[in-house]
Every structure is written in structure tokens, then in C-alpha cells.
Amino acid sequence: FTPFTPQRNQISIDNWRGTSITMVATNRLLSTLLLLTSATNVAEGGLFKKKHRRTKAGTKYQEHDAVHVVVNKVGPFNNPTETYRYYSLPFCHTHAGEEEHREALEEELPPGAGGMPGMGDDDASEKGFEFSSGRRIKADRVGAEKHKHRIGEHLAGDRRETSPYELSFNDDVEWRLLCKTTLGSVELNKLKEAIHNNYFFEMFIEDLPMWGYVGDFEDEDAILGEMDGSHTYLFPHLHFKVGTHKSQIVSVTVTTERDRRVDITNVHKPTTVTFSYSVEWFKDDLPWKLRMTRYADSRFLPGSFEIHWLSIINSFVLVLLLTAFLTIILMRVLKNDFSRYMELDDESLEEEESGWKLIHGDVFRFPEYPVLFCASVGTGVQLVVATFVLLGLALTNLISTTRRGSILAGMVILYCLTCSIGSYISTRLYFQMGGKAWVRSVLFTSGLFPVPTAIVFMWVNTIALVHGSTSALPFSTIFTIAALYSLIAFPLSVMGGIAAKNYASHDFNAPTRTTKVAREIPTEVPWYRGRFFQMIVSGFLPFSAIYIELHYIFASMWGHQIYTLFGILLFAFILLIIVTSFISVALLYFQLAREDHRWWWSTFINAGMTGLFIYGYSFFYYFHRSGMSGMLQSSFYFGYMSIISYAFFLMLGSAGFHLCLLFTKHIYSRVKCD
User: What pTM value is reported for the model?
Assistant: First the structure.
């Protein structure tokens, strides 16, 4: 018989909770493995059709080797998230044979165009056929068959499929028939609507993207739209231009020819369309490793993305001066305070005590809702670490910044791997505040960021599914992310909490003793020293430091620009953290000077206010700097921008709080207090 004691009961409860969490993690692991095994068996059983493997980038080709063109998606140019399958529009699924090509060639070229003087009609026809089509047409490639995708490509909305285009290495094609089809009113309406919405298409050769417009329209009113006399044209001919360097493909472009356009204005009349293509090969001096640098100069992309170095340097100098000014002023004020407090004797100490020293018995009184506060601080530290690691990997090219979705996939994996850091920080701080329910702290930390993200994801993914967009993640990707969280993120969070419970110091080491009764806080303060004004100042000043770079980041995230200046981005992120932390310390001093000891939540919120300013800027960018529109694009844009702003709120709030905590402990350890 073991006698009941509160201490023994508490230890047994903690051990039971730890064992329960371990059992839950083990059960999730076993269930996930069973699901993976079942999915593998179903796939091997033939329920899912085998997908095509991608052509490895950097392949060394021999003469006349087959080169595959992979089609990806179509969508409005101004709405980069609103994308659909390439074959959602009535494009060719199969390639025409030689006989069809020969018949179409007779209509395309004048008699004897490919022949030589003195040749007969048959010889001229044969020469013209070889000249126009290059090598013999096999017509063995079928379109609309799916490719295998990486998780990052799914996150980016890619849905790559095969195409019937026949390209062979270093074989020019003057003109070749792809297919000849008659489009009815349904197909014509689809194409016409796509053209009026400025649809573009995206294709790939290896990992090199190509873009082009589906068609064009003329003589339409900007407000009223289609009018009498306006025309809508489809571009059925594509010209591929491929650059090679040492038997490797280093550059690709696709252009449409206005001379071969087809008028589809009248959608009620069936229209016969001849889809065709041509191929041009040339020697390029660009090395294979630098093949992605060419896209910065692409004419298809907007040309107003030059980095204004002078503006960035100007912002840096202004922020540096502001930080130095605040630091000098704060140091001088603190030096005067220290000198005044040190010169007081014991008799006059109580009479002269005022300002921030007066609340020494309350300043280390722990905040309300400690579980939520500790979880917010821990999650913020975790996101800061994950962001620094991601930017470091991008700078060292360990993560390919030009590969589709690699940054998104890298952030998902890094978040899972750093969960132990966030849980360790939050649980340690919770124990230092005298908390006992550490399991609750671990659960809050593990769900504080993923739960809001999952809610936003379910909303936008449902909208994408309703619209039939490729932005909707397939079940396999959702299952993979859920498995990453269940098998990596959550167990690491539990391990981080256990490590903090058993090995971290639980002493807060406050330099002053906290009184039992809280001191009354003055309520009459000037408006410029109030909480609302401090929140505005603490958010606006750091936001001004990143305003310039924020425009280019938005243009990359919500446009078609490939962002590669991660060195500047890392510099801006470090600058943002430094400025936010210094501003938070300055505002904390003013708060303590007016004898307000509730600084825990206020410093965290003040530091995180820049995230709210970023979300406010997203509205300005959407309505005044972009052409985005529609329910689908708006849901993705404002939904995911809320998550990004929330992440900045947690990161900057955590950074500001830690520096404020060091500052508070430092100043109260330097003065005599009862």
C-alpha cells in the first residue's frame, strides 16, 4: 500500500500524460504505415494509371534524339493562382500522320515551293515534304497523359502532361501539321472566353519553362468589352526556338505567329482550325549551369522588376540612423536614471522612488494566459529559425530557387524538423512561469500555427476544387503533408517538451521579488503614450525598412517573376528583426516609466504589429499594383497572405519579447530594490 501524497500524485499524472502522448504518436505512426501500404498495394493493383517520368535536366543528346515537350497549365495572366489543365481547352491530343501532313502541306505551300529547278512535280513534292517536316513523322506521341510530380510542384499548382509535339535534337522543322480539327460552338466559346481573359499557356522542355498567349482580340472597348467590328483571334501555330550548348539544351522559347491566326469571333459557326508548329535549333553560348539566368530578361514577363539599389540603401541608412538615435537617447536616459537611483540613501529612497523603479515588485509578475503566451513565443522562435535556415540553403544553392515549388516544399519540411525547437522554448518558459500543465503547452505549441493554416487551406482548396483549378492540391499531396506532421512534426514537438521538462532550467532568475498584491496602474496618460499609438509606431517604423523589398517579393509570389535575390532578402529580414527589437525596447521603457507593469503581452503585440502592416499592404498591392480579380484568386491571395502576416506577427513578436526580457532584467539588476 502506497500512501497518497500530492507530490506523488502529480508525478504520476505527468508520467501518465507523457506515456499517453507517446502512445498516441506510436498509434499514428502505425496507422500511417498501414495507409501507405494499402495505397502501394492499390497502385500496384492497377487502379491508378502509370505516370510518365520526367526527362532529366542536363541530358546529353545525340543527333536526332527525341526531345519531349511537356505541357503544364493555362490561366489568366493577371491571376497566377487561377490555373487549369492545359487540355481543359480543346488542344490537340494526337499528332497527324504523314498523309495528313502531306495534304495540309499542299494547302500551306505553293506548288513547287520546296522543289529544285528541273525537278518533276513528284520530286518537288517530296523535297517540299522533307524540307517542311524535318525527319519522318512517327505520330506515336499522345497528349494528356500525366507526369510524376514532386511535392513542391503540386504546391505550386503544376499539372504536367505529355504533348504530341515531335521534336528531335538539332532537327529544324520549317512547318509541320499537329492536327486539323473542326471546332463547334462549345469549343469556340471556351477558347473565346479564355482569350478575352488573357489566358496564357505554359510548357516545358526538361526544366525550362516557356510561355505564350492563347490568342488575341482587337477593336474592343476597355469598359464595354466586345463591340460591333471587334475580332477575336486564336493562335494555332507555335514556333519553338531551342538553344544548345555542348549537346545540352540551355534555352527554350515559344512564340505565336499573328500571320497564321484564325478568326473565331463568330462562335455559332463551326470553324476548321489547323494546329501546326515549327522548330528552330541554334548554338547558344550560355553554359548549362546558368540556363535559368536568361529568364530575368524574358520579354513575356513584365520588365519593371529592376532592383532599385539606391532606394534600398536609402532605406537602410534611414533605419540605421533611427536605430542609432533611439539607442543613444535610451542609453543617456538610463544612465541618468541609474545615477539618480544610486545616489539616493535608504531614508530618501522611498520618498524619491518613482518611474520604472517604483514597479520593481510587479514588473516580473507573469502574464495572463501563460500557455498561449509561451506557445506564441516558442512558435515564433521556431519560424525564425526555419526562415534563417531556408534563406541560408537558398543562398548556398542547396535548395534550387528556380525549381518549381522548392521554396514551399523546403519551408514545409523545415517547419516539421524545427518543431522540437519551438516546443522546447515554449515549455521551458512555461516551467519558468511556474506552470504545471506542460502537456497542454506542448499541444498548444504544436497546433498554434498549423491549425490556422489548415483552416485557410481547407477554404481555398474547396474554392479551387469547385472551379476545377489545378491549384487544388490532390489527395496524395494532402496525405503526404499530413503524414509529415503526424510522423515528424508532432513527435518532435513532444520530444522538445520532454527535453525542456527534464533538462532545461526551471528558474526564471528574476532580479527582484514579486509582491503578492498587484500595484494599481495609472489610467490617465497622454494619447501619444497610450497603447494604440505605441502599436501604430511599433508597426510602421519596421515596415518602412522593408517596404521597397516587399514590392519585389509580392511581384514574385503573386506574379510570374522568378525571385533570386535571396541575399538581399536575408539582409532585409535581419534588418527587420533588429529594428523591431530596438523599437520594442524603446516603447517598453516608456511603458515602464509611466508605471505600467503589464509589459509581457504588450511587447509581443507591439513587435508583431509589422505583420498587420504587411497584411494591410497586401490590400494596397491587390487593388493598385496588380490586375488580379475573381473569387478564386482573391481567396488564395487574401487567405494565404493572412497566414504569412500571422507568421510575421509570431516571429517578430517573439524576437521583440526576448530582447525586452533581457532589457528588463538588466535594468532592474542594476539598481537597489527592497
Answer: 0.84
